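Chapter review: from sequence to fold.
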Amino acid sequence: MSLMLTTKRGTSKKLIEKINFNWAGDTYKEYQATNTATIILQKRNRTVVTSARGTSMKYLENTSIPEQSKTRSVYITTNRGTKRRLIKIN
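The token string follows.
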């Protein structure tokens, strides 16, 4: 027997093939422990950053990290943003 679950605010559906009807006692605790362990192991492989109230997701493994060079000088604004000063950083 299979079951169709609705997830993510009703926008996606998931088909579950194996259903266990015993949802009480020690058997449920064992099922919950194995299920959470597999979910945690799956999530360790991928790191996801969510934005826009959790509606958009980006995987950190897919994004490229730009090369960072040492900053030697920086502009700082003064006088309510009307003047700029160049400050050198060693």
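Two observations follow directly from the output. The beta strands are 3-7, 12-16, 48-51, 56-59, 73-78, 83-88. The first strand starts at residue 3 and ends at 7.
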